[in-house]
Structure formats: C-alpha cells, structure tokens
Design a protein that fits this description.
Blueprint: H1 3-13, H2 15-36, H3 44-47, H4 49-68, H5 78-107, H6 115-134, H7 140-173, H8 180-201, H9 217-224, H10 228-300, H11 307-334, H12 341-355, E1 359-364, H13 374-395, E2 399-407, E3 410-417, H14 435-446, E4 450-454, E5 461-468
Parallel strand pairs: 1-2
Antiparallel strand pairs: 2-3, 3-5, 4-5
Length: about 475
C-alpha cells in the first residue's frame, strides 16, 4: 500500500471528523461574528454582519445534522429520524436565505425600500412550495432530491451573490478610507466565497437529472480522490479567517475615526473659545476705542486740524472690526461641519430665508443625531448652499421644498423650486459651463454619490441627491 493510499484510507475513516470540522467552522464563525458585532459601527457593511452570523450558525447546525442524526437511529423511530432530516433541510435553506439577504444588502443593486427582503422571501417561498410537494412522498430519496435543489437554487445563488457583493464592496465601498487591510480582507473573503459557491452549490449529491447526474460529489471524488466536504471545510476556514481579519480592520478604522472625532471636538471647542474671546474682548475694545475717538471729534469741533486724521483712524477701526467679524464667522462656520445634519440644514435654510424673500418647506426624516465625517459634511454643506444660491440668483422662485431621509446607509435629498427652471444644457454635467454647477458635480463625485436634475411638467427644477452615509 502506497503512502497515497494510506492517506485516502485515513480520510475515509475520518469522514465523521471532517463533517464535524465542517459544521464547527461555520458555527464558530457565526458565534464569533455575533459576539463582535457592533450595531453602532459607522460602517454600513458592519451593520449587516448579523446576517452573516446567522448564516454561519444555522449552516453549521445543518451540516452537523449529517453527523449526529444517524447516531440517533438506534434510539428513535424512523418517522422521527425523517423529521430530524426535514428540520436539518430547513436549517440549510434558512442559512442560504439569510446569506442571500446579506449579499443583496451589500450589493445594493436597488434603493427601493425592503426590496432585498422581498427577493429573499420570494426565494424562500419558492423553495418552501417545492419542499411541500416533494416531501409528500415521505422517503429519504425525496429528501436527498430536495437537498440537491436547495444547493442549486438557494446555495449557489446566495453564495455567488455574496461573492459578487464583496468584490464590489472592495472596489467601490471604501474609496474615501485609506485602509488597504480592509480592501485586502474583502477581496480575500470574496474569493473564498467564490470557491465555496463551486464546492457547495455545484458539487452536489448524485441525482438522475442534469447537471447532478454528471457533476456531483461522486464524480469529484473519482477525479480528485478527495471528498468534497474537505474542500468545503477549507473554504469555511478561509471564510472564518478573513471575516475575523475584516472585522479587526473595521474596528481599527472605527477607533481611528473616533480618535479623529475626539481631536476635532477638542479643536472645535478651542476655536469656539477663541471666537468668543475675540468677540467679547477684542471686538468690544475696538468698538469702545472708536466711540472715544468719535467723542473727541465732537468735542474738538469740525474746524480742528486733527479731524481728518481722526476720521482716518475711525475708518481703520471699522475695517479692523469688519475683518475681525469675518474671522470670527469663519471660525464659527467650521462648527457647522460638526453639527447633526438636520441642524446644519436648518441653519442653511434660516440664513437663506433671512436674506431672501423665498419660503422654504423643509422636511427631515433622518436620525436627529445623524452626522457625516467632517470632510464629507463639508462637501455636503457646500452642495446644499450652492443649490440655494442658484435659486436666489437665477431661478426667480418664490418657494423651495427640501426633503431629506436616510435609508439603507444612504442619504437621499430632494430639492425642488417653483422658478423658471434650469437651462436644458445644464441637465447634463458636461453641457453646463457654470462654475457653481461644476463644483456641485465635483463634490458629489468626491462623496461617491449621484445627483440628477430634472424639469417637472409643473415648472421649476427638481434635484435628487443620493450619497452614502459612510
């Protein structure tokens, strides 16, 4: 007997161990993700990891069923054993459904409310309907047939979609973050799921229909002399390893963001103190000095030879106080970028309505404490300010409506006015020569968002802006 034959015999003898490790890998992965899961994470990807945790737990339990249910045959009647296999099949299908939901959320192929749940429920309903019809025969053959269909219909679909979503997330999801470890972990996790889709969703048990009659676990063992469960276990280990790497990378990035936020808060508090001291101290002193010079002018009379020099001093003081007020406003404007979005929008609107006789209907459905990172909030501030400036300068409008909401880690803003409407050439970014419009599109691009301009039939201009919250 050769060493290779000894190895094959060792694998065959220890198949229960492989099944146990296979289930253990995914079950452990689900528990670890659940323990480390943080709903408060600023990263949208992290907020959906609870679905990946559910997949790991239920998939691990379903795979353990192949190991532990046969051990119960000596103690329970056949109908009870059959019911155990039915529950195992349900666990397997449910694990793939939650993985499909996770993949659809990360992929974000649509922004319609709860559409990914509708798709997931639709897949589950189709599988459930097939299972009811299939299980009426009540034998193990029908169970194996249903298990194969589950792997094809749910397993392969959900795992491939998750792999695609992770590839897309690695390419587009974190461009604004200088975090190569996140990028590498997402790419490696995507590759792991891709191979797992092949071994779990394509290499199935042998059946009488295509392609399971040609490409199946028996064919795979004949080609490789290795059980497919071994490769599934290896994929599971890689998925566990790179998921932990990814969560660690996100945690480090989150800690850096919180540290930056803390530093920004301290810097902002110091700038606020400086602006208050300048206003209450230096500015008031300059104003008092101007009043004293004016008082001297009055006492000396208009014929005094120093009147002209004193007037120049007053003018110089006026310029100095104007510059100082501008510096103070510059310091205070920076505070806008650290305010909740709803308050920032309200401040912009209040200033706009105080400057122009244009009414604004404002509706904000976001979390009252929702904020963006300071640099991203800065870009959003200038986008909204420029939209209001365009209304004031060009639209000849009497009313503006601004509606804000957040959904699925995206911020949506609709902005309409009842003015004369945007020139048609400005509906296309390439056709508009205005500097302000060009800056709007540049800032939206930096935010990795999307903006559209339209001319409603009732007149005016409709602007729709969508940007990721992280």
């Amino acid at each position: 007997m050769t060493n290779l034959d000894s190895f094959y015999n060792l694998l065959n003898i220890n198949m229960p161990v492989i099944y146990f490790l296979y289930g253990l890998t995914f079950f452990t992965s689900g528990i670890v993700i659940l323990v480390q899961y943080r709903q408060s994470s600023p990263f949208s990807f992290n907020k959906d990891l609870w679905l990946l945790s559910l997949f790991g737990i239920f998939h691990g339990l379903s795979e353990w069923g192949y190991l532990f249910i046969p051990l119960q045959q000596a103690y329970f009647e056949q109908n009870i054993i059959f019911s155990m296999y039915v529950v195992r099949s349900f666990f397997s299908a449910f694990s793939f459904i939650v993985l499909l939901s996770f993949g659809l959320r990360v992929l974000a192929i649509t922004r319609l409310k709860s559409l990914d749940e509708v798709i997931s429920y639709g897949f589950f309903a189709a599988w459930f309907g097939f299972s009811l019809v299939n299980l009426r025969y009540g034998d193990m053959h029908s169970l194996l047939l249903g298990d194969t269909v589950t792997h094809y219909f749910l397993g392969m679909t959900s795992i491939f979609i998750t792999s695609l979503a992770l590839f897309r997330q690695a390419k587009y999801g974190h461009k604004h973050l200088a975090a190569p470890d996140i990028l590498r972990s997402e790419q490696a996790l995507a590759i792991s799921f891709f191979f797992y889709a092949f071994f779990e969703g394509i290499i199935v048990s042998q059946q009488d229909f295509f392609p399971a009659n040609l490409i199946n676990s028996s064919w795979f063992f004949h080609i490789t002399k290795l059980p497919v469960q071994l490769f599934r276990t290896l994929c599971g280990i890689f998925i566990l390893y790179y998921t932990l790497n990814l969560m660690g990378a996100f945690q480090r990035a989150t800690d850096n963001l919180f540290l930056q936020a803390k530093e920004e808060a301290l810097r902002l508090a110091e700038r606020e103190r400086i602006s208050r001291d300048l206003h209450d101290g230096v500015l008031q002193t300059l104003y008092a000095a101007e009043l004293m010079i004016e008082s001297c002018q009055y006492k000396l009379g208009p014929t005094s030879p120093v009147q002209a020099e004193m007037q120049r001093s007053i003018t110089t003081l006026d310029v100095a106080m104007h510059d100082l007020r501008s510096y103070i406003m510059g310091i205070k404007n920076e505070a806008i970028y650290h305010q909740p979005l709803s308050l920032m929008f309200k401040n912009i609107i209040d200033e706009f309505q105080n400057s122009y006789k244009i009414t604004v209907d404002f509706n904000c459905l976001t979390d009252p404490n929702l904020q963006l990172a300071p640099n991203r909030q800065d870009h959003l501030y200038h986008i909204i300010t420029e939209l209001f400036n365009n209304v004031a300068k060009h639209a000849k409008a009497q009313h503006v409506a601004m509606h804000v909401k957040d959904h699925r880690h995206q911020l949506y803003i609709s902005f309409t006015d009842d003015g004369i409407g945007l020139p048609k050439e400005c509906l296309d970014p390439a056709g508009c020569n205005g500097l302000g419009m060009r800056h709007i599109h540049e800032r939206v691009l930096i935010l990795q968002g999307a903006i559209s301009f339209d001319l409603p039939l009732q007149g005016g201009t409709l602007v729709v802006l969508a940007i990721p919250l992280v």
